[in-house]
Structures are given as C-alpha cells and as structure tokens.
Specification:
Blueprint lengths: L2 E3 L7 H5 L2 E3 L8 H18 L2 E10 L5 E6 L5 E2 L5 H11 L30 H7 L2 H11 L1 H11 L26 E2 L1 H13 L6 H11 L9 E9 L11 E10 L2 E11 L7 H16 L7
Antiparallel strand pairs: 1-2, 3-4, 3-9, 5-6, 7-8, 8-9
Helix pairs in contact: 2-9, 3-5, 3-8
C-alpha cells in the first residue's frame, strides 16, 4: 500500500500525526479517512508555500457541533478584512448601505489605495466586498459614527469588541479592525458566522439578506454554496508582510446542511498572492472532504 510523507515542521499536532499516511484505493476510503487525507494535503500545500496553518475549525450551523478543530483556535489575532462582514450588517441595518449597488462612492485623493488601480474606481457594496476595498469600509464606519460603531460591535459579541482604543496606525472608525485594537479568535469567528446563519444578531432581515448577497463567492466546491470573506493582517500594530495572517471565514450550504468555518494561516516570508487568498483556496479545496459526515474531530 503506498504512503505519502508529510512535512511535520511548523504543522499542528494533527498534521504531524499523519505525516506518514497510507493511501488505500479511492474506492475503499471511508469518508472520514478521505477527509483526513485531503485536509492534511491542504496543510502540506500551505507549509510548502512558506506558510504554516494556525487553525481550521468547521462546525454545524444548526447544532453548533464542531466537526473539525485543528491547531490553536482560541488565540485572538487581528480580524483584518473579515470584519467587513460585520460592517456590512451594520451599514445595511443603519441605512448607510441600501442594496448591493447603492451607494456608489467615488475614490478621492488621500484614501488608502494599496490595493492598486481597482481601489481607485467608483465602488458599491458588492464591489467593496469582492475587492476588499479598505477605504469603503472607513466611509461606512464613519457614517455610523464612533459611538454607534462601538455599540454594534459590542452587541455582536465580536471578539474582544474593542473598536475604540487608540492602538497602532489606525483606530476606531478609521481601521480598528486592521492590526489595531479589534481582535478575534477562529472559534469566535465561527460563533459569529453561526449567529449570521441563524439570524440571532440585532439587525434587520434586510441587513442579513444584503450581506448574504455580497458575500456569495463564485466557487462551489463539491456542490457547496459558499459565503465568505478573506482577510490579511499580521501580528503587532503595524502590518508585517513577512509574517502575514491569512483568514478565510464564512458559511457553506448544501441541501439541508449549513456549515460555518474559519481557516487561519500565517506566512513565514513575504509572498503573493496575499495570505487571505491562499487561505481561502486551501480551505475550499478541502471543503468537500471536510464536510463528510462521520469524521472524528
């Protein structure tokens, strides 16, 4: 029976445990073994690209049962652009955002434009979420005002819920979610996604509906309809691209089942594409196998 040797350095205990994994014929693989192998392969891919996995957690949205939890899933780090999902809910609930194409805001000199030319174009909510345009987040947060921005974040129970403290280069409505005061763990990300799916947050039905529309991604691995958001940040209070975090959080639905998830990796050197995109791609490749029923945690 053939075997594949997995690199153990930098991987969580789960991956080290399967560094020599027998691969039986595909037709004889039980669902959980297939999930195990696919997930381990994804971790290997992350490691071989000069990044290491921090945490992957997947839970059933209806029951809250954790299906997969590997790595350090309790430590809080910057939420980075995953917080756009929360800002979307706030903006649509407060009426700052109207629908997926309203309002369209123009770029102005002085706005953050590290995303290049696409960030300098007129932007609506759908484009904001798809291209992860930082200045649009700032405009929505400023329209809410600092007090209401903090109230929403606290009401959502989002991580440490601190969008007020002045830390780092950005703070408050100007970017508390970007290497600043706001911190959240992968387990807390999953809890927040579950609140969205179950619609238990203090926002309107319209806010949920619009946020679902603009977070829908094109990929449908294994027939799963996925809503999600990437995020790229780093430790500390100033962005360090050589040690970037890569988030991918959201929920996936297939038939009667909905899963909520968070995937977090960290780079060991500066590289492209950004860590958030690579976290997303690794997770989506493994999703159909991770979603198989009957696998161990």
């Amino acid at each position: 029976m053939p075997a594949v040797a997995f690199l153990a350095h930098g991987l969580p205990p789960f991956a080290r445990a399967v560094r020599l994994l027998p691969i039986p014929e595909e037709c004889h693989l039980k669902p959980w073994r297939r999930a195990l192998f696919t997930f381990a392969a994804g971790l290997l891919a992350a490691a071989s690209s000069h990044a290491h996995p921090v945490c992957t957690v997947v839970a059933d949205a209806a029951t809250g049962q954790v299906l997969v939890q590997q790595g350090d899933c309790a430590a809080r780090v910057t939420s980075a652009s995953t917080f756009k999902v929360a800002i979307s809910l706030m903006g649509f609930d407060a009426g700052v955002l109207k629908d997926e194409h309203t309002p369209t805001l123009d770029f102005h000199a002085g706005y953050p434009d590290w995303g290049g030319a696409p960030w300098r174009e007129p932007t609506d909510p759908a484009r904001w979420m798809k291209l992860s345009i930082f200045w649009y987040s700032e405009q929505v947060a400023q329209a809410l005002g600092q007090a209401r921005f903090q109230q929403y974040t606290s009401a959502f129970g989002y991580g440490n819920a601190d969008v007020t403290s002045k830390q780092g280069e950005l703070s408050g409505v100007m970017g508390a979610w970007a290497n600043s005061s706001l911190r959240i763990s992968p387990l807390e990300q999953v809890a927040f996604m579950r609140k969205i799916v179950r619609r238990t947050l203090p926002v309107s039905a319209h806010a949920y509906d619009m946020t679902e529309r603009i977070t829908l991604i094109d990929a449908q691995p294994g027939g799963w309809t996925v809503h999600g958001k990437t995020g790229t940040g780093s430790p500390g209070l100033k962005y360090d691209g050589a040690h970037a975090y890569g988030w991918f959080v959201g929920w996936a639905t297939k038939g009667p089942r909905t899963l909520v998830f968070a995937n977090l990796i960290q780079d060991d050197k500066r590289q492209t594409p950004n860590a958030g995109l690579r976290s997303r791609d690794t997770f989506l490749a493994a999703l159909p196998a991770l979603a198989e029923p009957g696998q161990p945690q």
